[in-house]
Amino acid sequence: YAVSKIKKLQRRDYFRLGITVPLKISYSVDGTDIKKETYTIDISGGGLKIGCDSRFDKGTGLEIQIEIPNLNDKKLKGRVIRCRPSLKNNKVYEIGIEFQDLKPN
């Protein structure tokens, strides 16, 4: 029998951790600054998925403030890469956000 090599397909650059952490997002609509309190669904080194009651267009810029216990609050910049209705709750959108301008510590 001929056996081909097994290859693992790597679809993500970072491990994704399913965790719920409160956070605040800020964004601007038609020159008006808006702030919302929401939560993470999962987080990785390249971005996060949040649950929110608002729909966002792809490319929308966000400022994100993550509240992690025992650490200083972190403010990050991100942009929306996808937004779709949650399959678990029809009043919530699941929003994929890619981190922007991350600098190593």
Helix and strand topology:
Layout: E1 17-18, E2 22-29, E3 32-43, E4 47-52, E5 61-66, E6 74-85, E7 93-100
Antiparallel strand pairs: 1-3, 2-3, 2-5, 3-4, 4-7, 5-6, 6-7
What does this structure look like?
By secondary structure, the chain is an all-beta fold. It has one domain (17-100): predicted glycosyltransferase like domains (Thrombin, subunit H), CATH 2.40.10. Helices cover 0% and strands 51% of the residues. A 6-stranded antiparallel barrel has the order 2-3-4-7-6-5.
Q: In total, how many domains does the architecture comprise?
A: 1
Rounded to the nearest angstrom, the radius of gyration is 17 Å
Approximate shape:
globular
Q: Please report the number of helical segments.
A: 0
Tell me, rounded to a whole number, the average pLDDT: 85
Order of helices and strands: EEEEEEE
| Major β-sheet strand ordering | 2-3-4-7-6-5
Strand % is over 45%
CATH architectural type: Beta Barrel
Straight-line distance between termini? 52 Å
CATH topology: Thrombin, subunit H
Number of strands: 7
Helix/sheet category: mainly beta
Given as residue ranges, the uncertain stretches (5+ residues, pLDDT < 50) are none
Question: How would you concisely characterize the structure shown here?
Answer:
With 105 residues, the chain is mainly β. The chain contains no helices and 7 strands.
What are the defining features of this structure?
105 residues, Thrombin, subunit H, six-stranded antiparallel β-barrel, 7 strands, 0% helix, globular
